[in-house]
Write a structure and sequence with these properties.
- Two copies of one chain form a homodimer.
- The first copy, chain A, contains 16 helices and 18 strands.
- Chain A has 460 residues and is α+β, with helices and mostly antiparallel strands.
- Chain A folds into three domains: 4-90, Uridine Diphospho-n-acetylenolpyruvylglucosamine Reductase, domain 2 (2-Layer Sandwich), CATH 3.30.43; 97-215, Uridine Diphospho-n-acetylenolpyruvylglucosamine Reductase, domain 3 (2-Layer Sandwich), CATH 3.30.465; 219-408, 3-Layer(aba) Sandwich (Vanillyl-alcohol Oxidase, Chain A, domain 3), CATH 3.40.462.10.
- In chain A, the strands form four sheets. The first copy, chain A, has a seven-stranded antiparallel β-sheet with strand order 15-12-14-13-17-18-16, sandwiched between helices.
- In chain A, strand 8 and strand 9 form a beta hairpin.
- The longest helix of chain A is centred in the C-terminal third of the chain and has 20 residues, at 389-408.
- In chain A, 60% of the residues are buried.
- The mean pLDDT of chain A is 93.
- At the A-B interface, strand 9, helix 7, strand 11, helix 8 and helix 10 of A face strand 9, helix 7, strand 11, helix 8 and helix 10 of B.
Chain lengths: 460, 460
Amino acid sequence: MISQTVIKEFESILGKDGVFLDETDRHTYSYDAAVLEPVLPSVVLRPERSEQLGKLVRLCNENAIPLTVRGAGTNLSGGTIPTKGGAVILTNALKKILEINSEDLYAVVQPGVVTAKFAAAVEAKGLFYPPDPGSQAVSTLGGNVAENAGGLRGLKYGVTRDYVMGLEFFDVNGEIVKTGARTVKCVTGYNLAALMVGSEGTLGVFDKIILKLIPMPAGRKAMMAIFNDMARASETVAAIIANRIVPATLEFMDNFTIRAVEDYSHVGLPVDAAALLLIEVDGHPAQVEEDAAKVESLCKEMGAENIRVARNAEERDKVWEARRTALSALAKLKPTVVLEDATVPRSKIPEMIQALEEISCRFDLTIGTFGHAGDGNLHPTILTDKRNKEEWHRVEAAIDAIFDKALSMGGTLSGEHGIGMAKSRFLEKETSRGTILFSRRIKAALDPKGILNPGKIIGE
Amino acid sequence: MISQTVIKEFESILGKDGVFLDETDRHTYSYDAAVLEPVLPSVVLRPERSEQLGKLVRLCNENAIPLTVRGAGTNLSGGTIPTKGGAVILTNALKKILEINSEDLYAVVQPGVVTAKFAAAVEAKGLFYPPDPGSQAVSTLGGNVAENAGGLRGLKYGVTRDYVMGLEFFDVNGEIVKTGARTVKCVTGYNLAALMVGSEGTLGVFDKIILKLIPMPAGRKAMMAIFNDMARASETVAAIIANRIVPATLEFMDNFTIRAVEDYSHVGLPVDAAALLLIEVDGHPAQVEEDAAKVESLCKEMGAENIRVARNAEERDKVWEARRTALSALAKLKPTVVLEDATVPRSKIPEMIQALEEISCRFDLTIGTFGHAGDGNLHPTILTDKRNKEEWHRVEAAIDAIFDKALSMGGTLSGEHGIGMAKSRFLEKETSRGTILFSRRIKAALDPKGILNPGKIIGE
C-alpha cells in the first residue's frame, strides 16, 4: 500500500484530478491484452506535463513504489500489468506532436501520441512513418517504442526500432537522460536510445521521442492470391523473397482465419480458400508495375487458384482493414485467445506452417494462423477457454512446442509482441545464461530498487 | 606490468606464436589513426579461435589487466589506443565469413573480417552490404560495429548499426552473451546488440556478428556537379533533399580538398572549382533515370557551372576512389591532420559550411572541408603541426567552436568517428549530466574492474 503522505504528494504534483484511487479506475488498469491474471495497482496517475512525469518517477523511487507506465494497454505479453501493484502512470495526456520536420525528415513526439494519428499527421506532409502495429488505431508511440512494435510492413521497412533516432527519458531518479540525435548519423556516447527501445518500461520512463521519417513512396499496388492448398501458399512466400522482390507487405491467412474475418467484417473474402496471401508492393511506379507483374506470375506458377488485384485505393484499404480485424474476429469465437508470435527466417515459413498444423493435431487444439509471413513473423492463434484446465494444459504444451520448433529453425521467441511476463521463463532457452545475467546486471544498475515495471523481460 | 605467471597462461592458451612481448610489436599497437599520444601495451595477443578469445577475456579480468581489442586500428578517435597499457587483443586471425545466407538475407562473420572483402563476397552473390567507411579497404567488421562506422551511403542506407541483426559476445567474465536473431523481427530480451554497437569495446568482446544484407539495387548513376561558389554548392545539397530525392551518396568537397586530391590521385578533378558535389543515385532503373535528371536540373538551377555524368562504371569508380583518398591526400600536406566529424541536420549544411569558413579565418587555420553532406556529416580537416604549441592552441579552440556551432544547430559531436578519448570531455555538452551518470552505471555494472578499453567514451 501507498501511504497517505505519498498520495498527498502525488496530488500536490498532479492536482486531485490526476490521481485515481477508486477501485473501478484501478480495475481498468489492472490488465492488458495478454491472457494473464490482472493485478490491481494502488493508484493510477495521469500527468499532463513532462516535469510532472519526472517528479512522479523520483517520488516513486524514493518511496520504493513499483511503477508501470501505460499507453493504450494493447500489449500482448503482459508488459503493462502492474505485477507488484504500486502506481500505474498513464501517458494519454502527454500526447503532443512537438515537431514534424519535413526538411530534415524527423519528428519529435510525446509518448502518449496515438500511432495512427501520428502516421496521418506525417502523411499530410507527404511523409511516411512505416511502423504499423495491428493496434495502431489506439496504440501509443511510447508503447510502440517500449515494446519495439512491429506490424505489417516489417519486411521492407523494419520495425519501430529502425525509426527511433533519439530519446529523452527520465532515469529512475527522475533525472533527464538525452540520447541520439536529429541527424541520421550519431555516435555520441552509448546508444542508449536503442537499449531503451523494447525495454518494456524496465529501465526508464520516456519523455520525448525523436522519430525518423521517410518520403512517401510514389506508387503502390495490392493484390490477393487465393490458394486451394496451404503448402503452396507458404511456398509462394519463400519464392517471392527468393526472387529478390521485397513487398511492403506479405501477409498470410489460413482458412480458419479467413472464415472468422469474413464472418466479422464481410468484405468478400473467399471463404473456401485453403489460404490467402495479401501482398502490397510500393515504390517508384515503374518498380511497382514490374514487381506486381512478377508477383502475379510467381503466384500463378506456384499454383494460385485466382489473383485479385485491387483496382483502387478503396478496394485496397478494404482488404487491409479486414486483415487488421483478424485478432478481433478470432477473439469472438472463444473465451480465451492466445496470440503467439514466434518468428523464423523467412525461407522457413513453409516448414513452420506445416509444423503448426501438426501441433494443432497433436494437441487437439484449434489454431488459426495468420500474420506477417514475409518477415517470418506468423501469429498462430489458439482458441480456447482458460477455465477448462485440461485443455489449458494442452495449450501450454502446444506453446512450448511452437517455441521449440521456431528455435530449432534459427528463429526467435517473439518477433514483435515482447517478452513481458508471458515469455520471460523461455528467454534463456533462446539466448544463454550469460545473456540473462548480463541483462540483470544492467537492470540492477539502472533500477537498484527494482521499481520500474518489475518482473518484465528478465523475470525477477 | 603483467606477471610472468599470467604471460605463461597467455602462452598456454595461444601458444608462444600468439603472444607478442617485443618492444617493436608493442609499439606497432600503441596508436591508431587519431592525433593522440601513443601508449605502449604490455603484451599483444593474437587468438585464432573463439574459445581462445573467451579465455583471454576471463584471464584478463581475473588479473585486472586492461584489455583493448583492435581490428585494423583505422579508428579516428583513439578508440584503439591502450590507454592504460595491459593487453591488446588482435582480431586479424578471427577472419572467417561463417555464412552468407541469400535466402534469408543475412551473414554471420567473425570480427576480424575486412569490410571490403566482406562487401565483395556479398556482392558476388548479388547482395549488398551498404556501410562503406572511408577505411573499408583495411577496416574490420568488428571495428566497424564497435565504432558504429558510417560511410558515404549513410543518407540512403544508414550506418553499421542499421545492419547488425545480432551479436554473440563475451562479457567481461568470458561468458558468452547471445542477442538478436537471424530474423528481421526480434524482441526477445533487451536489445543488447544495439547497445554493443558503438560501445567502442568498453562493454564486451565480439565473437560473432550477424549482419543484415539487402538485394543489390538494379541501377546506379553517378555525376559530378562543379560550382564556382561554395555557398551555391551547399544550398544545392539542401535543395536536393528538400525535393525528396534520396541519393545513395551526396558528397561535398571544397577547393582546398579538390586540389589536394587531384595532386594526389590525378583523376582530372577541376582544380579551379570552388566546390564539387559528387552524387550517385541508385535503385530501379526508371527511378535512377528520373532522379538523375531531377538532380541534374536542380544543380543547374542552383547555379552549377558544369555537370559531368559518369558514362560507365569505370568513370564512376574513378571518382569515388579519388574521393576516398581525400584524407590521405590532405594528410600529406602537413605533419598533423585533425579530421573532425561534427554532424548537423541536413538542411543546416549551408550554414555549417559558412561557419567553417569563418572559423578558419578567425583562428587563422587551414581547414579543408569535405564529407557526407547529404546526411549532414562533414569532415572539416585541420592541417597543422602539433609541435607548434601556439598553433595547436588555436586548433583546439577551433574544434571547440566547431562543436559549439554544430550543437547550436541541433547537431551532434560525432557522426561516425566515435567519442573514444578524443571527445569524451565534450559528451556532457551535447547530452546531460544524467546521460553520463546513466552510462557510467551501465559500464560499472558490466565491467566492475574497468578493464574493457578503459577511458573510452565516458571518461574515467
